[in-house]
Write a structure and sequence with these properties.
With 226 residues, this protein is an alpha/beta fold. It has helices at 16-20, 58-68, 84-94, 157-167, 183-190, 202-212, and strands spanning 10-13, 28-33, 69-78, 96-105, 111-112, 116-117, 119-127, 140-142, 173-176, 194-199. It has an eight-stranded mixed sheet with strand order 1-10-9-2-3-7-4-8. The protein binds S-adenosylmethionine (SAM). S-adenosylmethionine is lined by residues 15-17, 34-36, 49-51, 57, 61, 151, 153-155, 177-178, 180-181, 183, 198-201, 204.
């Protein structure tokens, strides 16, 4: 049996460090992921993000991600700007090199402190030397409000689809090992790609599963900002 079959177009519950060990080397065409930002996140409803309070998972998780990614391919990872040195140190040690950087502009402030926080950010990382896409996306992308109903840091599909369409081909396999409510899976499916999702938290796993059930309905590409 194809060793990927049990994971394809599904969300698997578990710690990605352990789940990824069950995948063969170099089986993934593109990684698009949104790991914990290492900021002790808690929203106004008290919702938290597992592993957002420690960096111990960072190296072993990205080591497995690197192993399963095909050579000469891309990885897009959101990250917490206040902990950028931890992310970059791990990525560079593993051989994942920054070749681009995205800023996602929010039409609203997700928080207010020293600034009104109106952007998210992600690195485009290369394993080896990927062929440059024929139509690269702009590195400033609008970030519609997702509503955050299913997950406190739920990403809008409109921010993910351009990345998937630029850095993979139809039918290819997209991995998100920090899947949350499964936004990357929906964006991959809407783009005609296959996906493998992993989520540790039982509640978010169930939310992603419900969203990705073939018979279930899912939210439209964008939702009205509140
Ligand atoms: C920033 S959130 C992702 C949100 C997602 N982009 C969405 O649109 O819903 C990161 C997720 O990673 C999960 N997580 C943290 N550590 C993990 C691990 N070791 N393995 C798998 N999932 C993990 C958390 O439970 C959380 O849901």
């Amino acid at each position: 049996m194809n060793p990927l079959q049990p994971f394809l177009n599904k969300v698997t519950q578990g710690d990605c460090i352990h789940v990824l060990r069950r995948l063969p080397d170099q089986c993934i065409d593109l990684v698009v992921t949104d790991p914990p930002y290492l900021v002790h996140y808690q929203d106004s409803d008290g919702r938290k993000v597992a592993n957002d309070d420690n960096p111990r998972w960072l190296y072993p998780a990205f080591a497995e991600i690197y192993r399963v990614l095909r050579p000469d391919r891309y990885l897009v990872s959101f990250y917490g700007w206040g902990k950028v040195e931890k992310f970059l140190a791990v990525w560079k040690e593993l051989g994942l090199f920054p070749v681009g950087h995205f800023v996602f502009i929010k039409p609203y402030a997700s928080r207010q402190g020293h600034t009104r926080m109106c952007h998210e950010q992600a690195y485009l990382l290369a394993k080896g030397r990927p062929a440059q896409p024929s139509r690269p996306p702009p590195d400033v992308i609008n970030f519609d409000y997702s509503g955050n109903k299913l997950h406190p840091t739920q990403k809008p599909l409109t921010a993910l689809v351009p990345l998937i369409e630029s850095y993979s081909d139809p039918g290819e396999i997209i991995l998100d090992p920090f899947a949350g409510s499964g936004s990357t899976g929906l964006a991959a499916r809407d783009s005609g790609r296959r996906f493998i999702l992993i989520e540790k938290d039982a509640g978010y796993f169930r939310a992603a599963q419900r969203r990705l059930e073939p018979s279930g309905s899912h939210s439209p590409l964008s939702s009205t900002p509140r």
